[in-house]
Amino acid sequence: MFRVWLITGSSRGLGRALAEAVLASGDNLVATARDPGQLADLSERYGDQVLTLALDVTDEVAAAAAVEAGVKRFGRIDVLVNNAGYGNVGSIEDTSLADFRAQIETNLFGTIIMTKAVIALMRGQGAGHIIQFSSVGGRIGPAGRGAYSAAKFGVEGFSEVLSKEVAPFGIRVTVIEPGGFRTDFAGSSTVLAEGRRDYADTVGATVRFQREYDGRQPGDPARAAAVVIHIAGLDEPPFRLLLGSDAVRNVEKADAARIEADRMWRTVSVSTDFDAEAEPMPWEKKTG
């Protein structure tokens, strides 16, 4: 049976690669973007197999309307892919609160809004798969990505809770954590601001790396799309899935450091429990 997908941010990047792969597989698609004109070629090539819609994911009324339109056309929504998002680079000090809010609204609240728009539908269907595009930036906080990582860390926590709540209804949740892919995410979709010289060795280094990395990222969008389609067909898909050799390498390194730090501070961590014997704090114990 052909599945019905709803993908946000379908006009470019990984969202576009996935939209094309979904349609090529024979599945039906609700393809959304802020500018639906950028999706016109999909309609021309695939006809009634695709429904293209204008959608601002931060607008809960529009989100509900997109889901309703998808159900009206295809009868159900089997897979929601929350892909829409962007991330600027700049120091926390120099990033305006308006920019912080805008990035968090799109990357985190957009995901929450779209997810809430399909939960009741999928619960009624007794099945569904919600795929959240997070990032390596949802596991590691690189310098210069304060707003983006704040949002993506939020997506990860939100999705972990979500997966536990909706599992009894047959709804699966997967968080995708891509590394660098050869899309325009690191190019025209990102504002790079080195800012003041005080941050030259931290934020500035991130900006310089981003510029040099653009076009040389190891990730292939078409191969990523094939993986997402594969996991959407599994009875037991992963909850988290890293994409790209750079993502695997960097997260493994960060996770190992985190585990080692927790081990190093374990005595202090457990010392905060109630203790009837009133043991001194670890650093207060005398030696020798």
UniProtKB/TrEMBL annotation:
Pfam families: adh_short. PANTHER family: SHORT CHAIN DEHYDROGENASE, SHORT-CHAIN DEHYDROGENASE_REDUCTASE FAMILY PROTEIN. This is SDR family NAD(P)-dependent oxidoreductase. Keywords: Oxidoreductase. Coiled coil: none annotated. Residues 3-179 form the Ketoreductase domain. Transmembrane segments: none annotated.
